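Q: Could you fold this chain for me?
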Amino acid sequence: EQADALARQMEPVARQNPSDRDFRDAMQQLKQVANDLRRAAAQGNNDPELLQAAQQRINEARQLLERSQQKADASDAADAVQQMADDILQQQREIEKDMAKLPAQNSPERAAEEKELAQRKDDLLRKMDQLEATASKVASNAKKSAPEAARQFRNLASSLQENSDLKNLVEYSK
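A: Sure. Below is the predicted structure, expressed as structure tokens.
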């Protein structure tokens, strides 16, 4: 009864994630366990081996669900990293536009705007460091559940670490 109820609860989630094979396999296992246990109960069969096998399949389904959740978490993290990168690019574009609009040299307005731009560039550098750290963390967390995604995040983190030219350029332009 519990396996059947759990499978019913998971059906809407399965429809939202039709490409998640682990999730579909877990659903199928839970449905099969529920059917086997119903059939055994209808026949009056309380065989301990049958119950033990059902428990084993429920545990396997639980592991598949955990793996599915880890993949979903990795996907969410990838979206967050992408959003961070997009925000950094947008902020850099805004800084570039504002630099092009700076008032004439030696004007009091220019000094104030240069100070504000320097602060925004410091913020940009912090965000770049945060992106690097987040990419490394996601790569580490996704190692087991999504090895290809983990590799891509490791490459991103390495690229950010190795490509100090970008950070140097932002620093230099302050």
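A (continued): The chain has six helices and no strands.
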